[in-house]
């Protein structure tokens, strides 16, 4: 399954690792369908909070040894700590960001970036906190159901209701960004290489 993300700079196609990270990808896909985030700067909530209440604002990591931050375009959860995933995610802009491995759930990868959007994001002028001077926004998302993901052959997106929030961490405030593009370091005060 993949998602086409329309940003204020152009389009990026992301392939999702639905078999390896089912909880994370369901959360991401439901947020895409709901047109979430709202951009209110509240840090975001997982879809499981809407189903099971405040105790399910966060969900557990789904970290796998083979899914790493080894190349540009890895898509991962921007968690507030171990098992504190909500709605924030990032896309890596460099290769070999191994210091992130084992800490963040990698749940997808950029499959198409024909307009060099990742390069444009990486070259954006930023303030001293790493935020772009000109906002880079997600305008719209499109879910592409390339493969049949259910045993009955349907493409329906469903949520596992058997867990009912059992593996969810208690609510805690996280960063004020709805999404971010992680930058390992900046070479100068404007983030230019």
Q: What is the CATH domain class? A: Mainly Beta
Instruction: Tell me the structural class.
Output: alpha+beta
How are the strands ordered across the major sheet? 4-3-5-2-1-6
Look at the structure and name the CATH superfamily.
Answer: Cyclophilin-like
CATH topology: Cyclophilin
Instruction: List the helices and strands in order.
Output: EEHHEEEHE
Outline = globular
Mean pLDDT: 77
Distance between the termini: 34 Å
CATH architecture designation: Beta Barrel
Helix content range of the residues, please?
10-25%
Low-confidence stretches: 147-193
Number of helices: 3
Estimate the strand proportion: 15-25%
Query: Got a strand count?
Result: 6
- The structural domain count equals 1
The Rg value, from CA coordinates, equals: 16 Å
General description of the model:
Residues 149-165, 176-193 have a biased composition (Basic and acidic residues). Its main location: nucleus. The protein is an alpha+beta fold. It has one domain (2-144): Cyclophilin, CATH 2.40.100.10. The chain is built from three helices and six strands; from the N terminus they run ββααβββαβ. The chain has helices at 22-34, 47-52, 117-122; strands spanning 2-7, 11-16, 74-77, 89-91, 106-112, 138-144. Strands 4-3-5-2-1-6 form a six-stranded antiparallel β-sheet, with helices on one face. Strand 1 and strand 2 (11-16) form a beta hairpin. The longest helix is centred in the N-terminal third of the chain and has 13 residues, at 22-34. Residues 147-193 have low confidence and may be disordered.
């Amino acid at each position: 399954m993949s998602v086409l993300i329309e940003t204020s700079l152009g389009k990026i196609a992301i392939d999702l690792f639905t078999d390896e990270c089912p909880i994370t990808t369901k959360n991401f896909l439901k947020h895409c369908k709901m047109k979430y985030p709202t951009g209110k700067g509240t840090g975001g909530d997982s879809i499981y909070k809407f189903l099971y209440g405040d105790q399910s604002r966060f969900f557990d990591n789904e970290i796998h040894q083979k899914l790493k931050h080894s190349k540009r375009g890895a898509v991962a959860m921007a968690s507030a700590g171990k098992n504190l995933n909500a709605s924030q995610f990032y896309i890596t802009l460099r290769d070999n960001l191994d210091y992130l491995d084992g800490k963040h759930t990698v749940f997808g990868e950029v499959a198409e970036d024909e307009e060099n959007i990742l390069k444009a994001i990486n070259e954006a002028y930023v303030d001293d906190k790493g935020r772009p001077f000109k906002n880079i926004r997600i305008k719209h998302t499109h879910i592409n159901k390339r493969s049949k993901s259910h045993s009955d052959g349907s493409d329906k997106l469903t949520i596992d209701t058997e867990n009912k929030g059992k593996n969810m961490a208690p609510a805690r405030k996280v960063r004020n960004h709805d999404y971010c593009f992680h930058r390992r370091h900046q070479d100068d005060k404007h983030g230019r290489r």
